[in-house]
Amino acid sequence: MESPQIINQVLQSSRVRQLVRAMTRAFNWKNTPLVGLVSYLRWAIPIAVSFVGIAYILFEQIVLQNHALDELSVIRSVLVIGLAGPALVWLTLTWAARAAVAEADAQKQLALRNQEARRRAVHLQTASLIGQRMSALLDLNSLLTEIVRLIRAKFGYYHAHLFLVDDETQEIALTEASGAQADAIKARGLRLKIGAEGITGSVAHTGRTLLCNDVSQEPRYHSAELLPEAKSELAVPLRVGKRIVGVLDVQSDRLNGFDNEDVIVLEILGNQIGIAIENARLFQETKRRYEAMVALHETSLDMIAQLDMDAVLQALMRRGTQLVGAQGGTIYLNDSEPGIIRNIANFNTSRDWRGITMRHGEGVAGRVVATGEPLIVNDYDHWAGKSDAFVGDPQSRVIGAPIKWRDQTIGVLLILNDQTMRAFDHADLWLLRQFADLASIAIENAKLHTQVKNFSQELERNVAERTRELSDAKEEIAIKAAQLRSLLSKTIKIQEEERARIAREMHDGVVQLITAARYELRAARVVGGATISRAAHEKLDAAREVLEETEREIRHAIYDLHSPLLDAIGLVPALEKYASRYQELAGIACVITVAGAPCRLPDVLELAVFRMVEEALQNVASHARAHNTAVALNFESAQLEIIAQDDGCGFDFRQWMNSRNGNHLGLIGMQERVASLGGTMQVWSEPGQGTRVHFYLPITREMG
Ligand SMILES: Nc1ncnc2c1ncn2[C@@H]1O[C@H](COP(=O)(O)OP(=O)(O)O)[C@@H](O)[C@H]1O
Ligand SMILES: [Mg+2]
Known about the structure:
Blueprint: H1 3-12, H2 14-26, H3 33-64, H4 72-136, H5 140-155, E1 159-166, E2 171-179, H6 182-188, E3 191-193, H7 198-206, E4 210-212, E5 232-240, E6 243-252, H8 260-305, H9 309-323, E7 328-334, E8 340-347, E9 357-359, H10 363-371, E10 375-377, E11 397-405, E12 408-417, H11 426-528, H12 534-561, H13 564-569, H14 571-586, E13 589-595, H15 603-624, E14 628-634, E15 639-646, H16 653-659, H17 666-676, E16 680-685, E17 691-698
Parallel strand pairs: 13-14
Antiparallel strand pairs: 1-2, 1-6, 2-3, 4-5, 5-6, 7-8, 7-12, 8-9, 10-11, 11-12, 14-15, 15-17, 16-17
Helix pairs in contact: 2-3, 2-4, 3-4, 4-5, 4-8, 5-8, 8-9, 8-11, 9-11, 11-12, 11-17, 14-15, 15-17
The protein binds adenosine-5'-diphosphate and magnesium ion.
């Protein structure tokens, strides 16, 4: 084996290497094989030299100079060299001992550093784990709970707290805690003025990490009696870019409980947490808005479906409360008295407030209606504008939104929570505002519906009343008409009887007298014989002629008054007879035509037909200036049809009907007569076009 190999082997053996390393450390040399070798030679050479020297002295003194071993020079030389060797060895051992101590120190340092490295690895692993957990959690509350729990558990801190910044009040509020006293601390709640109170308040203000390894020396330390063990505290800001959204605060029950390592890891975590909080908030906000929109949509559908005012108000209360996840709600609307609002509906309120009135400006409702702006009051009893009526009510968290219709505030919607429930925020306000706009539409709809309903009910009532009145009137008219008709037919009957009676009396009285007078004249002529002068004869003849003429006239009058032919020979022959006489007297051609088989009809009917035809032909003679007239009777169907027409001047029948006066009763009489017999009459006439009068009469045929 060559010597460098042996040296290498020696050097590689662990003990030697340790020793070499220790030596080099002791001499503050670098730990390289070459340097090791050099250091090895540094202590090996003196020992070797000491042995070589002794050997040389012994060799020279004893072999070359023949000195005895006990000679002083030999002894001295051996002593010198022999002492020098052990001295060197002692020195070497001392160095070696020092080197061993140094090695032990180095080992300890190494162990420490290893431990440190392990801790850092655990910290970083923990930080990464927390980061992962955070990115998976989108619900803010569970996110915060998980963050403080993990940080405290994984890093082994005494307590961990998380504060969130409340921009509105410029405070930080303890939101989550982990540690032995966490529940008690959370229950007690803690709010610190940013920049003015506590270590965390200061961190929220400066945005810089604050490490306090002995809280008893820190004037800003906010001592908490629930955490008596706290000795040191580390607070890091939670950031989103430059904005501080909160503070992560950890406490240790040891002095100098935190080192640089904690600071670095928690700062990294602080940034991650800040972003995670922002993400969760954004997610929640988006989710909330989405849910709000869905809820608003559903609400609008629900409310549009309701038209009855009470149902609308109940739906409004229920939906509004659900929308912001609150306990209850109430609605005030403007009263008929100006400047006053009145409670009209409640949902899950501590009392039924219906009927209670408030002045504009009084309480939350009054304030909202007066300003037209929404309002949040999270602690009513300590609110400057409180109204005595509601002080002490458990539901002391109030959010109010104006219900507006065409820029007019018509009422207020209040949503309520008690102190155990969450406080209202601006997101609720926004939502409620949108909701109140919908509410106003629903309320106006319901109002309109009520109005329309009332109006239509009124209308229905009026129509029913009028209909009743009308039907009463109709009945009355019908009764009157029936009475009139019967009166008319009675009148006609009496008239006809009277005419017959007069005709009879004229015939039996006057005509008999004339006949008697004619007999007397004849007798006078016989008695006078030849003695009667010619002149007297002429006078007698003249008297006879006057009598005959008188009798003719009277007979005509009797005929006009009552046609005995009608009774004797029936309707058609009587009409034919009348027509021929009419033709003679009026000078107008008159033709009677008959369709179907004529039969005898009841006297009243025959007389009526005769009189109507008579009246129609009289009118032709009086008004038509006609040349021809025709009367057609049709017995073919169930009702008797009679048409009397002429080729005269005609007239405007409709106009005549509208402007008729009481002096012309012919046509009206005909109409009434037909109606009394259950028939109808139609007149067709145009100026220059002649006139046609049409009658239809129901008939009951008689054998004849
Ligand atoms: N056939 C007819 N031709 C032309 N005008 C007629 C005829 N019948 C009736 N009239 C018009 O109708 C009016 C009403 O007739 P009527 O009631 O019988 O009353 P009067 O005969 O007493 O005038 C007549 O005044 C006349 O102007
Ligand atoms: Mg007439």
